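Deliverable D4.2, example record:
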Amino acid sequence: ATTQPAPAFANIPGGKISVYAPDHAKKAFLTVSVAGMRSSQKYAPEIMFPDGTLATIAAQNGVSTGRIDFPISDDILAKMVNKVMTMRYTVTSDGKLITSAHQEVTVQPLREGDLPQVLLNNIPDNGTIDLNIKSNSKVLASLATWPLMIKGQRVSIDLKAKDITPLNIEFAIDAEQAIN
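Output generated by the structure prediction step:
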């Protein structure tokens, strides 16, 4: 065959599918299923971002069952959120490189409920911080982790209070914060 069948994100068939990334956290994979697969063939998955860059997933030799599930790391999955990804693979067989048909995967954005509430001095929403009390003169804003939190993600926090000028804090998640 000059073209191989399309891969399937999480073994979900179809030329165009839509997925919610947190449903696949720590268990995402790209399925390549080919009748007549041989161990002498080399299968290399390609996950293409809209800007043309590729996510790196290690190639594997064919297997007698005809199905390979290539794991997709949470780091790659997090970078796919709110994007339309193109997934395909190449197979090297008898010295020839063959490209598969592709699958288009729309990865839905995180939902508001997926993101944690900001806590000020660990006081829950609608709590009170009396800034006239010396121990409260410094306010610490904190966030719990969320699904698919990774290093480099940008965070924007808007702090608002009655009779106080609103404050916006923006930062990137660092490696220590991303460990969850």
